[in-house]
Design goal:
The protein has 286 residues and is of the alpha/beta class. The chain has two domains: 176 residues, 3-Layer(aba) Sandwich (Rossmann fold), CATH 3.40.50.620; 90 residues, Pantoate--beta-alanine Ligase, Chain: A,domain 2, CATH 3.30.1300. Helix content is 38%, strand content 19%. Helix 6 packs across helix 7. The longest helix has 16 residues. The structure holds pantoate (PAF). Pantoate binds next to strand 2 and helix 6.
């Protein structure tokens, strides 16, 4: 496995890779890898000749009072895991390589960015869209793989790819990979490590309460009342706040007050001990 930290090196390395097999799958990450990321690498390996994993803690997607400084950085450990998984190349630029002096462009995706995490983390999706478009242009992958845990992020990136007629990757080659969960159901996240053992145990209430809410909605119970009960259950289980707990159309991410014919998703963001966790579940045919 190779590592590139400059654009010139990345271009040379990807060119070389393409000589021994034409397709490249990109797995964009911020490092601090866990089984959820490794599932993305495995999905990419199953469909592409080579897998490139980017590791870059992108400052522009963090708000002023968020965890940019605290976000775990462990490049050597991440590379060791990726080597075992058969990744071909790790793209690990530093901040100056990604955002050289004078950098002044922002990609802003409209409606789909606005609600949910877009509302509770202003500017977050502009930062994500901008860096992901840069990563796409830098690596020029045939396919790109994202976790469904960041369900709104995936919708934002697909919307960007569709609206801007991206070629590499084409919108249809942006693949969502199902959430990987811990034994107690908590969605894997690099931020789970912020939780003390007590809070980590309490956090399992989130997926459990969400599963119950999904069952109630699928059973035809009132959505507004079910979401209110879900919020109470999360708060009663030890969370300090719920940023949102909503049912949304799985494609457009528009809020729903009732389950209809089209696929839906239950989306939740909640805070426990200063850590913000997000999760989502398919509802109905979602
Ligand atoms: O999901 C993430 O880890 C990040 O938001 C991404 C897509 C790598 C962009 O920085």
């Amino acid at each position: 496995m190779k590592t590139a930290s400059t654009l010139a090196d990345l271009r040379a390395q990807t060119q070389e890779l393409r000589q021994s097999g034409p397709t490249i799958g990109l797995v964009p990450t911020m490092g601090a890898l866990h089984e959820g990321h490794l599932a993305l690498v495995r999905a990419a390996r199953a469909t592409c000749d080579h897998v490139v994993v980017s590791i870059f803690v992108n400052p522009t997607q963090f708000g002023p009072n968020e965890d940019l400084e605290r976000y775990p950085r462990q490049l050597a450990e991440d590379c060791a895991m990726l080597e075992v998984e058969g990744a071909a190349l790790v793209w690990a630029p530093d901040i100056a390589e990604m955002y050289p002096p004078g950098f002044s462009t922002t990609v802003s995706v409209g409606e789909v960015s606005e609600d949910f995490c877009g509302a509770s983390r202003p500017g977050h999706f502009d930062g994500v869209a901008t860096v992901v478009l840069k990563l796409f242009n830098q690596v020029q992958p045939d396919m790109a793989f994202f976790g469904e845990k960041d369900f709104q992020q995936l919708a934002v990136i697909r919307t960007m790819a569709r609206d801007l007629d991206l070629v590499r990757p084409h919108v249809d080659s942006i693949i969502g990979v199902p959430i990987v969960r811990e034994a107690d159901g908590l969605a894997m996240s690099s931020r789970n490590r912020y939780l003390s053992p007590v809070l980590r145990e309490a956090a399992a209430v989130l997926p459990l309460a969400m599963q119950e809410a999904v069952a109630r909605i699928e059973d035809g119970q009132n959505v507004t009342r079910t979401l209110a009960a879900l919020e109470d259950e999360i708060l009663g289980g030890g969370f300090d706040g719920v940023d949102y707990a909503e049912l949304a159309d799985a494609e457009t991410l528009k809020r729903l007050e009732a389950l209809g014919e089209s696929p839906a998703r239950l989306l939740v963001a909640a805070r426990i001990g200063g850590t913000r966790l997000i999760d989502n579940l398919a509802v109905g045919r979602g």
